[in-house]
Q: What sequence folds into this?
């Protein structure tokens, strides 16, 4: 993988509310950097006294011709960067960013992929789903999104489709076929196919739960790629 | 970039001198990060090997490595995802003790540290000698949890923590640098937090 670009200044073009706690920021980069689906950018904030804080955010937008990227940011209670992005940043603001970063948790768009995301872990998987759809290769992808309740689903209008399944763990929409419960073997069994690589993204607890389920289904460990979201705020 | 309007963050007050640039104090948390499924390694199956450019390749079992002189680390750790954790303690054995058994050849300049899961990372030999690195199986005097690399992990606390291989299986001594898992994926070959060596080219 080439080294990530230098720090550059990006301009916020649009801010979209995904859920009560998540917003998507569309950023116009000053230097195009051609990300791959699954990679992340670092956002660095600088205070007037020179203090800086930086955090990594996965890119939700697919690789495309534009010089824009979209990142979706969950607002953490104590998050010095996420709270600033949510509470202060508006279109027209400038942000310092660096990327794209990561060469492991990436999907190149031409191999079968099973995408399993918990909560905000859906973000890098959404870049993969969008890549599959825009290149006409939805047949390669199955996506399972696990959320607590309907209001917690990111990209709620765009995500549903024949290649995706939403699993609700606490509260399901009315007349939803599956009662709310934790993601189980039965939710994944039908998504497995020979030659598939699994991309698992979420909290560490979610990642361990899912890799445990995949082990029970005799899915090979070496075909699992995991991205754990720590409390990077 | 000048500065972000109205951003103060956790700056303002005097910055803790233990914090390398761009890091923040995560307090009592200890996030579990990692790119693989967590393995289930029984101590009866765990081994640690030193191989490559050594006069005496050695493989220790769990009991054998515990019979060596024990050593502890008390201090700070720094993760490239920008958190630092102060005043932690680990117990295990010094890498110096292990290398003394294996006897590195004069041509050895670098190592690849590898795990039981296939993870690798590269280090200059000088970064794991003279009291700078350990193989540890205790955290705060308790067995190291599997999520944090138990039964045993490498500990190289003066470098970013991805160098401290979880579920460590051994060291391979080389006469050249050979980038590991994160290093071929864009991360820095050395990873000194005080020089903020996060990514290739820093």
A:
């Amino acid at each position: 993988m080439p080294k990530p670009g230098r720090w550059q200044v990006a301009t916020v073009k649009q801010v979209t509310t995904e859920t009560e706690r998540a917003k998507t920021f569309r950023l116009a980069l000053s230097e195009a950097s051609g990300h791959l689906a699954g990679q992340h950018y670092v956002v660095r904030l600088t205070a007037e006294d020179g203090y800086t804080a930086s955090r990594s955010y996965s890119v939700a937008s697919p690789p495309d011709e534009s010089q824009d990227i979209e990142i979706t940011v969950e607002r953490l209670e104590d998050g010095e960067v996420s709270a600033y992005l949510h509470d202060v940043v508006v279109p027209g603001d400038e942000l310092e960013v660096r990327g794209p970063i990561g060469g492991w948790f990436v999907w190149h768009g031409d191999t079968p992929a099973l995408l399993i995301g918990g909560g905000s872990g859906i973000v890098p998987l959404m870049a993969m789903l969008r890549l599959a759809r825009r290149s006409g290769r939805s047949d390669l992808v199955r996506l399972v999104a696990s959320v607590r309740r309907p209001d917690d689903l990111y990209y709620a209008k765009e995500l549903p489709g024949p290649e995706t399944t939403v699993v609700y763990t606490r509260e399901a929409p009315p007349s939803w076929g599956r009662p709310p419960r934790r993601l189980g073997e039965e939710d994944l069994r039908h998504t497995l196919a020979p030659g598939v690589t699994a991309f698992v993204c979420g909290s560490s607890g979610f990642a361990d739960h899912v890799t445990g389920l995949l082990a029970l289904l005799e899915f090979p460990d070496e075909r699992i790629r995991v991205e754990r979201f720590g409390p990077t705020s | 970039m000048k500065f972000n309007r109205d951003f103060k963050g956790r700056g303002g007050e005097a910055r803790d001198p233990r914090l390398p640039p761009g890091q923040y104090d995560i307090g009592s948390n200890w996030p579990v990060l990692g790119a693989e499924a967590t393995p289930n390694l029984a101590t009866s199956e765990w081994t640690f090997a030193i191989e490559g450019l050594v006069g005496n390749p050695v493989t220790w079992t769990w009991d054998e490595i515990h019979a060596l002189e024990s050593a502890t680390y008390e201090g700070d750790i720094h993760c490239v995802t920008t958190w630092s954790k102060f005043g932690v303690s680990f117990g295990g054995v010094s890498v110096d003790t292990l290398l003394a058994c294996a006897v590195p050849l004069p041509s050895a300049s670098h190592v690849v540290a590898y795990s039981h899961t296939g993870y690798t990372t590269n280090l200059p030999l000088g970064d794991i000698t003279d009291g700078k690195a350990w193989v540890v199986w205790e955290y705060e005097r308790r067995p190291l949890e599997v999520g944090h690399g138990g039964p045993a992990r490498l500990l190289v606390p003066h470098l970013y923590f991805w160098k401290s291989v979880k579920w460590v299986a051994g060291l391979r001594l080389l006469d050249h640098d050979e980038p590991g898992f994160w290093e071929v994926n864009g991360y820095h070959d050395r990873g000194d937090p005080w020089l903020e060596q996060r990514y290739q080219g820093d």
Chain A touches chain B through 48 residues (CB under 8 Å). DSSP finds four helices and eleven strands in chain A. The mean pLDDT of chain A is 93.
